[in-house]
Amino acid sequence: MELMRFDESLPESPSRKRETQEQIDDTYAQIVEKYKKSKLIPWRKFVETPSFMNLVGQLTNEDVIDLACGEGFYTRKMREMTQGKVFGLDYCENFIKMAKWQLNDSDDIDYRQADCSLPISGIPYQFDLVTPTFLLQNAVTEERFEQMIRNIWNLCKPGGRVCGMGSSPKVPADALLKEHKYGRSFTTDPDTYFKRNSSKYIVRIEDKDADLDISLVLYWYSAEHYENIFKKLGFINFRWVEMELFEDTENQEYWKDFMDGCSLIMYEAFKPMNAN
């Protein structure tokens, strides 16, 4: 999603710099406010976020890196939970700028722009927990998909854990239609989706209360492909973890279509202690 850019070529006089910073702050404040509203979309508030944080579990002193961190929603949550280092990487320059802006001059989260489908360099640490949140669904080829997982391996400490999340590879196209009432609609190619890796499809996310209407181009990979590449690169105990409904449990009938064959899923894997 392309976000508003600010002009970095303005004169450098103190008064103009102050005026420019105020414009930047105002622009980002508006964008961030709108983006934060998107996190309050019911399926995100009651299903996605609590399910993922439940999978992450309790943290104390662990070092954490979030791949495809966006504007830092999950990195900020994990910063509150651990005394260790917290990093966030994202391909989108404006997301990284938004994430840094929200730190309010703090430096307790290290945000960096990086294409996680290419070899990642310049990160001088390995991490106890790697969280590829909505990352692998963006791999345009099988080679890029494998490189993403290779990056996850390289960034993970021996004995470390991976907690990932993204679009489910297990949901056929005809089952996606039932999520329209929750503000999620899908456009797929019936000749390739659910049949061939790297199948392109589009997810449209709408919510009137959040003033949100975006379309994301994503790529489908089979569950077997996920499992095989994680195993090939050395990870062990890979498992799929289904989403759960939290908080709004009194409306389980309403959520039945969303939860039954949910288009979102999580996964967990471990790097062996004796791995290089």
Automatic annotation (TrEMBL):
Q: What is the lineage of its organism?
A: Eukaryota, Sar, Alveolata, Ciliophora, Intramacronucleata
Q: Where is the Methyltransferase domain?
A: 64-160
| Gene that this sequence comes from | Contig7301.g7801
**Molecular function GO labels:** methyltransferase activity
Q: Which domain of life is it from?
A: Eukaryota
Q: Which UniProt keywords apply?
A: Methyltransferase, Transferase
- According to UniProt, the name of this protein is Methyltransferase domain-containing protein
Q: What does the record list as GO biological process?
A: methylation
Disordered, as annotated region:
1-23
Instruction: List, as start-end ranges, the regions of compositional bias called Basic and acidic residues.
Output: 1-21
Q: Which InterPro entries match?
A: Methyltransf_25, SAM-dependent_MTases_sf
